[in-house]
Amino acid sequence: MELKIIEAKNKKQKPTGALGFGKIFTDHMFVMEYENGAWGNARIQPYAPFTLDPSVAVFHYAQAIFEGTKAYKNEKGEIRLFRPRDNFLRMNDSGDRICIPPIDVDFVLQALEKLVLLEKDWIPTENGTALYIRPSIIAVDPVLGVHASHKYIFFIILSPVGAYYAHGLEPVGLYVEKEYVRASKGGTGHHKVAGNYAASLKAGEKAIALGYDQVMWLDAKEHKYVEEVGSMNIFFVLNGKVVTPALVGSILPGITRKSVIQLFESKGIAVEERLVEIDEVMQGIESGACTEIFGTGTAAVISPVGRVGYGEREYTVCGGKMGEYSSMAYREITGIQTGKLPDPFGWVKKIGG
Ligand code: PLP
Ligand code: COI
How far does residue 334's CA lie from ligand 1's centre (Å)? Predict the structure, then answer.
């Protein structure tokens, strides 16, 4: 497929102060459309709003999927993408779950590289910053019947970002949610489907009102096993062993999660992927057997957990500080991403020569 490039005439001012997360967007975006059974009209164009008929499927039935990955620029001027192919492969899995036609992974990877290179001056370089990449697909059939759309828009927008949490690398507080559920087996929780996030908002607001940052979700059936967190997977250090919930069908298979597992295993640190009972975690925090908890995600990077709220009680984890395993994971994963450390796993794609 041909890729047209239409350059923006008026360029925006680059940000100078704190970036926050996902509030600033670059000058260009990638767009392609699906119609008559094929993707086409691929172009990099000026960043601009879409004009959509009020009847399009995405507005009514949430037929939408998205991804999140990042580009980094280091002091040598290298531009580096972290495992971007895995995001587009996961996007096709998500699409399959809600009847969105697959994209050509090689083609969109090339388009992404061109877009990031065009916007390379937007990639921030301070510690903890990156250019966040948000690919999305929305269903745009202007028809109210409930069926899979015949028309879609795929787009990629870019946003220079700092830390996802307002307090940066400071340990976060999580609230264990016992009433609402995020996902159940057979549902869409294993996929990056937009509707999952709408379903999570109510519990997220409750956690924030109680003074926490995000929700720690339990399984939908028994409310007994830990699944994941609002925007990250979760790891525990229990009795000196690193443990993370197994991917049982209702948990997002995080790319950072699998990278941390591979990293730890390469250092001889076994990671147990298994069912993790919330009681085991809470009793472990009380007895001292649970010495560390941390989350992993593209936006969240490696986020140490300093507090867990469970019912009326609040528990402090690791003295409210970042522990040894999360520090190591943070140092090594961000080191590989930015090029401060070698990349023995071949995760990074350097672009632009
Ligand atoms: N779980 C959820 C619900 C997420 O939204 C994310 C973020 O993408 C993750 C886990 C972490 O996934 P990844 O490491 O691929 O960013
Ligand atoms: C990511 O980490 O890329 C996410 O998509 C999480 C969140 C911002 C929804």
Answer: 16
